[in-house]
Amino acid sequence: MRSINLFLAIILVISVNSAHALNTLSLKVGETQIISLKGVSDVVVGNENLLKVELLPPHDLVIKAISSGYTELLVRYESGSNDKIPIVVNAPLDKKEQLHLQWLKQQYSQLQFDEKAGTTVISGQLPQLELEQFKRAIIDYPDWLIQVSEVPAAIDQMIELQVTILEVKRQSAQHLGIKWQHSISGPTLSDASAQWVTFPITLLSTVNLLVQNGHARILAEPKLIAASGGQADFLVGGEFPIPQVLTQGAQDVEFRDYGISLSMSPHDLGGGQISTEIKAQISTIDPATAIQGIPGMLTRRVSSLITAKSGEAIILSGLLSQEQSLQAESFPLLHQIPILGELFSSREFRDAETELFVVVTPLLQSHQRQTQQSHEHAKSLIKSFRDNATCVGLTDGF
């Protein structure tokens, strides 16, 4: 009889000296618990439709949950005293809910998952962006009790954004792992034309090697700093006037920006992870779409939310098309713009032999200090070796 009651059930043995030590028991339908109580003479179930209880000598109490609900178990002792044990029987989770809960535990291992009184309880803290994603992931389960709050942002955590804008020969692109499109149709350009990809910090060494070998040239290397959750902007270009006719024949002039624009919003996710929202745009003057002598604008933009480790490089490519460089021939003034002017003056770029790269490397300042310390330590070791070796012509390479 005992083996039948325990068949296909989850068994939990609880040993206590008195029923007074027990809190509310929580069971699932089909689950069995064994409670060891000394001096028990009899048990009475409040609702026999929910539980099946059997007293096995010398002091084992076998409780099997049959259906969901709430009841109480009256325990009578040989001493004449009585105790009541509250018992909650929960309906089992459906298959979809079980799978989703398992997925959440894997995705958000820093959270605590419990079950209390038949309700799934999730508690803990998450960074702002992860908290927003988590809320969207649980929207189909309003019965869950959610006690997840936002992690307070570190006030003094600053993030440096190292930006490198360079021109790279297409035949050397394979060194960076980029597959290039042979052509990009224009002048109507969509956001999907631009590409982005992340690489480890060793990519920067590859870029430096390409520059040294003449396969790439650096056009600009700005460094920006923003607080976690803040924003950093980079703009190089100019404005061109557009005359407008107002009411009653009055005239006005509107100025439109053109050039390279970068807007970046980094977020420290903890554990060395940085989430960066990048909005990049390149605008050039387009005489092909001129109306009454007023040129149009040829614009290409990309907006991406990328999560990478501190020190990993994010590459944006495909931001500038061959058509934009050819249109620059009609506006010599564009050749005077920093960065873009150098690019438009490149015959290799006009012949689609090179490509514009924008490399963004977010770096936590604490991580940056460690990197600088390692760099200085390596530099001192090389200098010490050079001085002690008394070699002629040996340089430190820094």
Structure description:
The radius of gyration is 34 Å and the shape is elongated. The protein has three domains: 25-90, Immunoglobulin-like (Sandwich); 95-150, Histidine-containing Protein, Chain: A, CATH 3.30.1340; 156-179 and 201-318 and 352-367, no CATH class. The termini are far apart. The strands form five sheets. Strands 12, 13, 14, 15, 20 and 21 form a six-stranded antiparallel sheet that branches. It has helices at residues 2-5, 95-107, 128-137, 203-212, 322-327, 340-344, 347-350, 365-389, and strands at residues 11-15, 25-28, 32-36, 40-45, 51-56, 60-65, 69-77, 82-90, 112-116, 119-126, 145-150, 158-169, 195-199, 216-220, 223-227, 232-245, 251-270, 273-291, 294-309, 313-317, 354-364. Residues 1-21, 177-202, 321-337 and 389-398 have low confidence and may be disordered. The chain has 398 residues and is α+β, with helices and mostly antiparallel strands. The chain contains eight helices and 21 strands. A hairpin with a 5-residue loop joins β16 and β17 (251-270).
Short note summarizing the structure:
The protein has 398 residues and is α+β, with helices and mostly antiparallel strands. The chain is built from eight helices and 21 strands. Keywords: Signal.
